[in-house]
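Ticket #4471: structure output looks truncated?

Reporter: J.K.
Steps to reproduce: submitted the chain below (98 residues) through the standard prediction queue, then opened the result file.
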Amino acid sequence: MTAEFALVLPAVVVVLGLVLATVAWAGHHLRAGDLASLAARTAAVEGDSAAQAAVAGADARASLALSRSGTWVTATVSVEAASWLPTARNQVTARVEP
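Returned output as attached by the reporter:
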């Protein structure tokens, strides 16, 4: 019984670590979506500098890229995850009211 436990325990620890890392990355992805939505709405109403300030104030690890096309503003937010996980990115488009 002890030998089997000693063989299985490292595999269980690795799987648990991967599950926790996936949950953490999913949280970063949701955070990026929330911040992109905030940035798009803020940029559409108050301007690009207000959107930059809102994202910077909400999360220091997030970076914001804004682009405009006619009456539309697109906010792309990237949130840095752990060093070995990919960066969580999300994009939201909002219409600028005249």
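Triage note (M.O.): checked the attachment and the full token line is present. The chain has one domain: 2-95.
Status: closed, working as intended.
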